[in-house]
Amino acid sequence: MAARPAPAGNTTREDVLEREKARFGGIKFGSAFFGWLTATGTAVLFTAVLSAVGAAIGLGNDLSADQVADSAAENADTVSIVGAIVVAVVLFISYFCGGYVAGRMARFDGLKQGVAVWLWAIIVIVVLAVVGLIANTQSDFLGSVSGLPSIPINGASLTAGGIISGVIALVVTLVGAILGGLAGMRYHRRVDRAGLGR
Fold first, then answer.
1. Number of domains forming the structure of the chain
2. Residue 151 in 3-state DSSP?
3. Is residue 108 in some structural domain?
4. pLDDT string in tens for the chain (198-residue length)
5. What DSSP designation does 107 have?
């Protein structure tokens, strides 16, 4: 198989990438939408798997529902902390996957693609909040998006702990989506280095 000729003139890899980025760079909201779908689907799958594992552990110990509830009540602080960590890990991995898909599809500006994935999630939550207000109902907005780990948003939950949990969830998902977007874009830089032979 004959080798492909190198680009004509004194064109460098950086020149080629700059031209491509100028033409095809920027936020791609279509790619970000598919990234958001990936993040949502991943969160649903992880949540289902973790729920099944939790149920299996309870069944494996031959505990009744009352015994499980009593044990959880006795160790409420530990259960809350572990639950918060698990939710944070699920959200981070889910949005990392979503950012990766968006960054990989868009090829350029992985950081922006990750932010766009996160913005899609915010837009959907706001739309659902408005629909909920119009319908005059209280909703678990994140749960109604797609079965994400339950973080209820209503008047009763707007305590300091609820607000802090919400902020942590926003930060974790944003960081995960950005890192995923950068990782997805990095794949194309390796392809470019191989293709341009530099």
1. 1
2. coil
3. yes
4. 444 444 455 566 666 666 666 666 667 788 899 999 999 999 999 988 888 887 776 555 555 555 545 555 565 556 577 777 888 999 999 999 999 999 988 877 888 999 999 999 999 988 888 888 887 655 454 455 554 444 444 555 557 767 787 888 899 999 999 999 999 888 766 766 666 665
5. -
For the whole prediction, is pTM greater than 0.85?
A: no
Question: Do 91 and 46 meet the contact criterion of CB atoms below 8 Å apart?
Answer: no
CA atoms of 196 and 8, how far apart (whole Å): 11
Cα angle value 91/93/94 (rounded, 5°) = 60
Domain that holds residue 179: 27-196
d(CA 122, CA 56): 34
Give the separation between CA 112 and CA 183, rounded to whole angstroms.
12
